[in-house]
Amino acid sequence: MAKPVLVIGNKNYSSWSLRPWLALRVAGVDFEEQRIPLYQEGSREAILRHSPAGKVPVLHHGDVTVWESLAICEYAAEVLAPGAGLWPEDPAARAHARAISAEMHAGFVPLRSALPMNLRAEGARVPLPPEVRADVARVVAIWEDCRARFGASGPFLFGRFTIADAMYAPVVTRFHSYGVELPAVARAYADAVRALPAMQEWTAAGVAEWERMPETDAIALSASARS
Questions:
Q1: Sheet of 5-8, strands arranged across
Q2: N or C, which terminus of the chain has less Cβ within 10 Å?
């Protein structure tokens, strides 16, 4: 079968693109990357040629098309890299990993809105309203609980890297970009994610992109002005 093709958006801004890209890269999947800059003239039309949903990421693998981040990760775990351990082996740990991945997939709207992914925003300091602080506290609690219960064999949520880590990787970048203070366990976990060679590759490419999203950049600029 042909090499998988992963269609993504801007690396600087597209949190949903990062998730399956990171999972595929860490799992050692040989795939072709196709980047479509978001919110540019012709962007939507270009994306619609890959998926009627009109959103990225999209995975093409032969006759198979998967157009949603978590579903792409699941497909990778089952088809593209079944031996890579993208889910924990233990059934209880695997169920927990799926639960926290789904929670990230569906929740944390205040955090997403207040702290949009922007790798170039490093050094910005944004005031956190109560609902965002509550989201941060919940993320920290998830990380600390996973590290305590399942993380003895390595630096990630379940020891070795899994899809759960891919799902939370954009939050790691948000906390770093906007200077969110973390307790020791959560900070060590975030540092381990940021130290991944694949994560460093993505970050360097994102920072080097030329496209800009003014509304997203304005959040960091206003934060810098306040400081």
A1: 32-35, 5-8, 58-61, 64-66
A2: N
CATH code for residues 91-205: 1.20.1050.10
d(CA 106, CA 53): 17
Token look-up 């351990």 returns 85
CATH number for domain 5-80, candidates 3.30.420.40, 3.40.30.10, 3.50.50.100, 1.10.3730.10: 3.40.30.10
- CA dist 2 and 59 (Å) reads 12
More confident residue, 137 or 216: 137
The full DSSP string for 52-89 is: TT--S-EEEETTEEE-SHHHHHHHIIIII-TTS-SS-S
- Choose among 211, 214, 215: nearest CA to 36: 211
Is the entire prediction scored with pTM above 0.90? Answer: yes
> Counting every residue, how long is the chain?
227
Give the integer Cα–Cα distance in Å for 212 and 200.
Answer: 20
Between 184-195 and 197-208, two packed helices, what is the crossing angle to 10 degrees? 70
User: Does residue 73 have a pLDDT over 80?
Assistant: yes
Distances (CA, A) of 94 to 7, 132, 151, 159, 195: 27, 28, 13, 12, 24
Query: 189 in helix, strand or coil?
Result: helix
- Given a cut of 50, whether residue 225 has pLDDT beyond it is no
